[in-house]
Amino acid sequence: MTGLTYADYLRMDDLLSLQSPRTPHTADRAVVLAEQFFIITHQASELWLKQIASDLDAAAEALCPPHQPADLELGAEFLARTVELLRVLHEQLVALEKLPVRYFAEFRPYLAGASGAQSAQFRMLASLLGNDQGDGSLYRAYQSAAEHQGTSVAEVCARGVGAGVLHRLAEALLDIGNGYWRWKVTHLALVSRMIDQRDGTGGTSGAGHLARRIALPFPELRRLRSLRYPN
């Protein structure tokens, strides 16, 4: 009986067969490779979004009462990992800046109506985090955790490090919000570079559509924390 191999465990044959550029093979090789780069970056982003959404969902579950002290620490671990994974998403966009605009312009027509705006996982992440118009399910879980501990978010922010794990959770949420915002701003800059004022492939207004949707999550938490440092 043979043991499990690295290739079998990761299903490498399946994984490496999922990149199918629509640019004709008769086109310049640089254009085909540019589209492959574009596909790989987006596929990798969707994989990281899967992990981020799973971790944030697990964090929210850990924070919801009734919970034990160990559950709050577990939630903090999930949030800390998300902070780093948002950095990974951001760096992937930085790498995508190495896609020459002239090659993108050549394969863009083959995208037809496909657009990142159609990402179901991105919408799921937005629902978890919320925006400046309303809180998402993750922050509501944090509020419940504070109340279950006999305190409030305002009191946690006022006490700072004295609030222990609740303080660390609050700081992690703010780091997540900042990382998410930076990722979206970098995406806007990339789209502006690639298509400027042209419409997006999904029928949106392109860069303008993205710009109107950039907002920092956790507005109440940011407001309450700012009261601790009024100057």
Automatic annotation (TrEMBL):
Q: InterPro entries annotated for this entry?
A: Trp/Indoleamine_2_3_dOase-like (IPR037217), Trp_2_3_dOase (IPR004981)
Tell me, what is one Gene Ontology molecular-function annotation carried by this entry? L-tryptophan 2,3-dioxygenase activity
Q: What is one GO biological process annotated to this record? A: L-tryptophan catabolic process to acetyl-CoA
Which organism is this entry from?
Saccharothrix syringae
In terms of domain of life, where is this protein from? Bacteria
Q: What is this protein called?
A: Tryptophan 2,3-dioxygenase
Its taxonomic path starts at: Bacteria, Bacillati, Actinomycetota, Actinomycetes, Pseudonocardiales
